[in-house]
UniProtKB/TrEMBL annotation:
InterPro entries from the UniProt entry: EF-4, EFG_III/V, EFG_V-like, G_TR_CS, LepA_C_sf, LepA_CTD, LepA_IV, P-loop_NTPase
Originating gene: GUF1
CDD domains, A to Z: EF4_II, EF4_III, LepA, lepA_C
UniProt record similarity statement: Belongs to the GTP-binding elongation factor family. LepA subfamily. Belongs to the TRAFAC class translation factor GTPase superfamily. Classic translation factor GTPase family. LepA subfamily.
The keyword rRNA processing belongs to this UniProt entry's keyword annotation: no
PANTHER family found in the cross-reference section: TRANSLATION FACTOR GUF1, MITOCHONDRIAL, TRANSLATION FACTOR GUF1-RELATED
Annotated compartments: Mitochondrion inner membrane
Organism for this UniProt entry: Knufia obscura
Record-linked Pfam families: EFG_C, GTP_EFTU, LepA_C
PROSITE patterns, A to Z: G_TR_1, G_TR_2
Catalysis: reaction(s): GTP + H2O = GDP + phosphate + H(+)
Protein name: Translation factor guf1 mitochondrial
Cited function: Promotes mitochondrial protein synthesis. May act as a fidelity factor of the translation reaction, by catalyzing a one-codon backward translocation of tRNAs on improperly translocated ribosomes. Binds to mitochondrial ribosomes in a GTP-dependent manner.
Domain of life where this protein originates: Eukaryota
Domain Tr-type G: 63-243
Length: 661
């Protein structure tokens, strides 16, 4: 699973639009936090009492605040190192690998960070207390928006590299992102306890790739705690403090929000100027709505209430009465106190990333529609990057079309839906958006095959069809080179460059359609490299393409939930696969069933299911009343699970099996 996830990383060019930070010293520190009501409780508890924490924080001037994050490739040890730092500062009690900041079930199970997490710490250095603010960011680039927001928010970062793996694709990608935002970087080499750790080579790579002096690198084992104490003094000495004036009118920036069933929407905020207390009246620049502050506090790692949050600090805010809808909390919004609107200049917000991978989800039993809707809405409260639209399929009934930032994002959401809500759902394979340029000048982006222009007349109106391309970066051992090139070429890839990272590690860059990438490209790559390849990608552009809509027909009736927009070159292969696979899952009927795959009126592939006669009741003796009744009831129950496509009755499970990967 871990290898699979490693392959499943993705890079998207999501640029934060927060163009504040004219100088590094003035850079806003905007870490992100995330909690769900049920998973909020971190396992470990702080050593310090809340009043002790508040008293100490109150004494710390802004010059002794430090906001930083950890930049690393997937699995290089960010969450483990965060645990050690929290222990070292007495924020949590020592002992075991807790992954305190990985709060979601899916994060703990998969061992990946999905949401950026934040925690304040108090660290005594040379007799003075410092208020540190750490963000553990996700390594997977599907969650790139989280990462960039964390980077924008910090004054510096630990550049963490696993000494047994060296610099990897994500280290490079995340380094450039952090570097471009002017973060002060502190090189840290982790996992030096591993017998196959190659410290010298990793340091050399850090120098070659990032021009970071090996002399400055800190060699640690986050797992055993070896030398971790050397990190925080460097953070204090090298990372600049945030700036801000507590006596100015309040300028509060909304970094993140999540939903608590007890207190409504919780806001994670960074105070740029001024200070905030319970009872203050705030106004949002984005919505104009007014709120009264109910409580303010810090994440330590649980919420610890404070009487005041001051300029330079990052903390949480609840309103009273509470904010009920997460949509009201617009990430990147600025708030000030009522009456000061004219004196405060709002900060530029964040650019929201656009979804690029879409699936449709239907409840197995239509009676569960409302439950599925509730489940999805519950998850959306804490992940607003997912888009949702109602969808109706003739075969599968009412459902939803969901949009995600990437395939991992999609698969994580699906897992969370199943884990947290036990929903039994049918999910269609992922698709990507397509652009249609009409002759009359209209340009439309479609995310649902049902919107694809059909019929010769409509097609005559179309001037151009376009699909999204991505630039992929593949890193793998040299011995798999031939096989990897073969896979890329057969997925309509165009080679852009090939270089050797080390004597045996190849870095290959290919441009390819995103549609190919979401079509189990990772799976194919993984199986042909014994799981050794890593893959990263970023959006390239939209290109003109010969795309068509392939439809599955059952006795001439289209099965809408199965139709797909794809490149002409794939039509025969996919069409043949479809009819063969669908045939396997459809029971015989009283009449002949013809299954076809077609593009418009052109049939690409065909299979036939011979008729079958079975009259169960006829075989029973007339006096066998109770068995007869039982059979009729069973049939009635069974009918609930049936779907009709034209006159053909199909078991729900047939769709499930057909649409399963
Ligand atoms: N031997 C050894 N293992 C480590 C060390 N640090 C972390 N690990 C292990 O490496 C694996 C990944 O660690 P995480 O802390 O989850 O990595 P991460 O970078 O947070 O992962 P993502 O959040 O998914 O990007 C876990 O199994 C850790 O126990 C170390 O110093 N030595």
């Amino acid at each position: 699973m871990r290898q699979w996830l490693q392959l499943f990383s993705r890079r998207r060019a999501v640029q934060p639009a927060l163009a504040v930070a004219p100088r590094l010293a003035e850079r806003p520190s905007l870490p992100r936090a995330f909690c769900t009501s049920n998973h909020l409780r971190a396992q470990a508890q702080s050593h310090h009492t809340p009043s002790e924490v508040e008293k100490r924080i109150f004494q710390i001037p802004i010059e002794r605040y430090r906001n930083f994050c950890i930049v690393a490739h997937v699995d290089h040890g960010k969450s483990t190192l965060s645990d050690r730092l929290l222990e070292l500062t007495g924020t949590i009690q020592a002992g075991g690998n807790k992954q305190v900041l990985d709060k979601l079930d899916v994060e703990r199970e998969r061992g990946i960070t999905v949401k950026a997490q934040t925690c304040s710490m108090i660290y005594n250095y040379k007799g003075d207390d410092y208020l540190l603010h750490l963000v553990d960011t996700p390594g997977h680039v599907d969650f790139r928006a989280e990462v960039s927001r964390s980077y924008v928010s910090s004054g510096g970062a630990l550049l963490l590299v696993d000494a047994s793996q060296g610099v990897q694709a994500q280290t490079v990608a995340n380094f450039y992102l952090a570097f471009s935002q002017g973060l002060e970087l502190i090189p840290v080499l982790n996992k030096v306890d591993l017998p196959h750790a190659d410290t010298a080579r990793s340091l050399e790579q850090m120098k070659e790739n990032f021009e970071l002096d090996p002399e400055n690198a800190i060699l640690v084992s986050a797992k055993t705690g070896l030398n971790v104490e050397a990190i925080l003094p460097k953070v204090i000495e090298n990372i600049p403090a945030p700036t801000g004036d507590p006596s100015k009118p309040l300028k509060l920036f909304l970094i993140d929000s999540w939903y608590s069933s007890f207190k409504g929407v919780v806001l994670l905020v960074r105070i740029f100027e001024g200070q905030i207390r319970a009872g203050d009246h705030l106004v949002s620049f984005a919505t104009g709505r007014k709120y009264t502050v109910g409580e303010v506090g810090i994440q330590y790692p649980d919420q610890v209430p404070q009487s005041v949050l001051r300029a330079g600090q990052v903390g949480y805010v609840y309103f009273n009465p509470s904010m009920r809808k997460t949509q009201e909390a617009k990430l990147g919004d600025t708030y000030t106190k009522v009456g000061f609107e004219r004196q405060v200049q709002p900060l530029p917000g964040f650019e929201e990333p656009k979804p690029m991978v879409f699936v449709a989800a239907f409840p197995v039993d239509q009676g569960d529609f409302e439950h599925l809707e509730d489940s999805i809405n519950q998850l959306l409260l804490n992940d607003r990057s997912v888009t949702i639209q109602k969808e109706a399929s003739q075969a599968l009934g009412a459902g939803f079309r969901l949009g995600f930032l990437g395939t991992l994002h999609c698969s994580v959401f699906e897992d969370r839906l199943r884990q947290e809500h036990g929903a039994s759902i049918i999910i269609t394979p992922p698709t990507v958006p397509f652009q249609i340029k009409y002759r009359d000048g209209r340009e439309v982006t479609i995310t649902n095959p049902a919107e694809f222009p059909e019929g010769d007349h409509t097609k005559r109106d179309v001037a151009e069809l376009r699909e999204p391309y991505v630039l992929t970066t593949l890193t793998f051992p040299e011995e798999y080179l031939g096989r990897v090139i073969e896979i890329c070429e057969s997925n309509r890839g165009e080679q852009k460059s090939m270089e050797y990272f080390t004597a045996t590690q190849v870095i290959l860059k290919y441009e390819m359609p995103l549609a190919q990438l979401v079509d189990d490209f990772f799976g194919k790559l993984k199986s042909s490299t014994k799981g050794y390849a890593t893959l990263d990608y970023e959006e390239a552009d939209w290109r003109e393409s010969n795309i068509v809509k392939l439809t599955l027909l059952v006795n001439k009736e289209p099965v809408d939930a199965v139709s797909r927009v794809l490149h002409e070159s794939q039509v025969r292969h996919v069409g043949k696969q479809w009819v063969e696979k669908f045939k396997e899952h459809v029971d015989r009927q009283m009449f002949e069933v013809v299954i076809q795959a077609a593009v418009g009126r052109q049939v690409i592939a065909r299979e036939t299911i011979k008729p079958f006669r079975k009259d169960v009741l006829a075989k029973l003796h007339a006096s066998d009343v109770s068995r007869r009744r039982k059979l009729l009831e069973k049939q009635k129950e069974g009918r609930k699970k049936l779907k009709a496509v034209g006159n053909v009755v199909i078991e729900h499970s047939a769709f499930q099996a057909f649409l399963a990967k």
